[in-house]
Amino acid sequence: MRKELVFFYFLLVGLDLIFEFFNLNTSLLFIKNSIPLFLIFAFFQIHNFSIEKEEYLIVAAFVFLLIGLNFSYFCYTETYYLPVLTIIYFFEIQIQLYQVLKKLKKVNTRETKTYTKTFLIISLGLFFIIVFFPLFSFPVQVLFFIRVFQFAYYITLVFGNKKVDSQISWSLWLIILSNVLLLVDLAIFDYKMEYAIIMLPFYASKFFYLNGYLRMKEKHN
Q1: What is the C-alpha to C-alpha distance for residues 141 and 127, in angstroms, rounded to an integer?
Q2: Rounded distance, CA 126 to CA 121, Å?
Q3: Distance CA 197, CA 215 (A)
Q4: C-alpha dist (Å) from residue 85 to 82, 90, 144
Q5: pLDDT for 175-185, tens place per residue?
Q6: What's the half-sphere exposure (Cβ side, CA atoms, 13 Å) at 208?
């Protein structure tokens, strides 16, 4: 991605964090909507406004991002906030996962790495289940369980796979970090500057996924 696009994206992210800090709600909502729209524009602009039919799924993922950001803005204090947000972002990540699978010719499945990946899935799943499951109602637990194993499968896909661009791996770890920080904030204790701490890795993950996808496409085409 060209430097000016990268600069402008993170300028929008910085403005988002600043406007939230100073409670400039109207400006915050405008910038929050501008971020996924800019990613869509950048994706089209890089492709000279002509993309393959299957790549409209990337646009759909950013539409889910747009929906999720607006839902978070308007419904953060509602009791249904966490389950609905989980569903919205489940579909976004599932599209990302599908697009990575489409770009991969073959996944490295050597036996030694299979053991490592299996251990990683079990460890990650058990950690989240033990720490967070008792804090939520059963329907939320079910959604949370599905979400954990979605991430776990994504990890098995990118972990140790040289055909997956490193920035997609960074994107995955950053979105997991953001989700953990959100759960800590919602379920365990509040901490200062939580919005910036949660949203900075969240927004960075979106950039790294798009840039990683573009690099994979360039490499494998």
Answers
A1: 14
A2: 8
A3: 28
A4: 5, 8, 11
A5: 999 988 888 88
A6: 18
In one-letter notation, the amino acid at residue 44 is: F
Scan for tokens 């036996």, then name that residue: 111
In this structure, the number of other CB atoms found within 10 A of the CB of residue 152 comes to: 20
Residue 171 identity? S
Residue 50 pLDDT > 80:
yes
What's the rounded Cα separation, in Å, for the pair 134 and 112?
A: 34
Q: Cα-flanking dihedrals φ and ψ of residue 153, to 5°?
A: -65, -40
Residue-level pLDDT at 58: 96
The share of the chain scoring above pLDDT 90, in percent, equals: 54
C-beta pairs of 177-181 under 8 Å, 24+ apart in sequence: 177/201, 178/202, 178/205, 179/147, 179/151
Which parts of the chain fold into alpha helices (H)? 3-21, 25-46, 56-75, 81-103, 111-132, 138-158, 166-183, 194-220
What's the pLDDT tens digit per position in 84-99?
999 999 999 999 999 9
**Token pair of 13 as six digits:** 């992210």
